[in-house]
Amino acid sequence: MKTYDTLFSTQTIGKRVAQNRFVAQPMEGNDGIGGAVSPRAIRRYVKLAEGKWGIIVIEALSIDAESLARKDQMVINREHLDGFKTLVSEMKKADPNSIILFQITHSGRKSGKAFSHPTALYEPQEGEHLLTTEEVDEIQRKFVDAVLLAEEAGADGVDFKLCHGYLGCEMLRPANIRDDKWGGSFENRTRLLRESVEQIRARLTRDDFILGSRISYYEGIRGGCGTASADDAVEDLTEMDEVIRLMASMKLDYLNVSAGIPGLTSEITRPTNTSKWFYLHQFRYARRAKAIAGDMKVFGSAYTVLQEESLVAAEENLVRGDADFIGWGRQTLADPLFPSRVIGGEDVDYCKLCSGCSKLMVKQEQVGCIIFPQ
Ligand SMILES: Cc1cc2nc3c(=O)[nH]c(=O)nc-3n(C[C@H](O)[C@H](O)[C@H](O)COP(=O)(O)O)c2cc1C
Questions:
Q1: Please, what sign has the CA dihedral across residues 191, 55, 100, 364?
Q2: Which one of 99, 221, 322, 324 is most buried, by most CB atoms within 10 A?
Q3: Ligand 1, closest atom to CA 164?
Q4: Which of 44, 267, 269 to mutate to test ligand 1, by most ligand atoms within 8 A of the CB atom?
Q5: Mean of pLDDT values over 15-35
């Protein structure tokens, strides 16, 4: 039997130590109740905690009840705080050692028209409201509040969602040509992150609270992250390298490297059988980030497509120094107990790459694995 010594070794992240290098990537469940945490969501996450992941990133939680990408997305606000407290305490009962991060987001253009309010930072399309300077100021305040609520709920840290085409990502892009303080120059496009982190640090009470972010190194669209200008779609990572250096200089604890925009350039985000080799791009992005990330820990993405071989790839990439943590997305739905089963020598249910979970998400139904329903 193969051993995965590095994958199962501990690793520091900020002032904390993760029990192993397995990361359960954020996966939207679309099963909140009016924005609140539901019993189904608690069951899903308790199951993951039983799997003994080093780090569990709770799915995209909206900072705003008006910016939902999923009709039943959970919303992190004071009204729902008790539910989040219960979620964390139940997970900690199942495994006190797993580090729990909340991913916080604003869905921007990706908010659903049928149940929410799509907004744009630049060039609004039909049905999208162009955000005013003051409205973006308000969004920024909500990001800060969401982090403080996550701390109050007992989370170990937060993940700033700056990936996959949501507002945080739209803000960073060269295509964000706003002419106010929230667009145009690199300084303006990174303002949301810089100012939020500064304000958060001044107000957090725990000094071991983890702060990190998930980016799409390359989105694959004209003027997207990972291009050289607003009118170019070809990959040029120079500016995103600067974003990473900025994050390192701000002393973020980690960077979760992803790519693409689900629904638009989905193959880049989540390779399937017919687009399997895109995983090599994701490996390349993590390697490149690792080379410039300084003390920030780097999470790699998109390992699920390799199924059982993902363990070998994960171990190799850790040993080679191409990542510090390894993230699985769809695999967490196929088998939430993945790490504990591997270490226990038990059979693992490997994701069949059927995209059933993505289809449920697109249909606005509750998300889960259709092959191995838990
Ligand atoms: C159903 C579904 C829900 C997802 N939800 C999120 C999310 O909430 N936040 C996020 O950053 N990525 C989300 N993703 C992307 C995954 O975290 C991950 O990056 C992607 O599935 C590729 O990893 P994998 O190949 O290991 O599945 C989601 C993907 C799927 C299929």
A1: positive
A2: 324
A3: 11
A4: 269
A5: 98
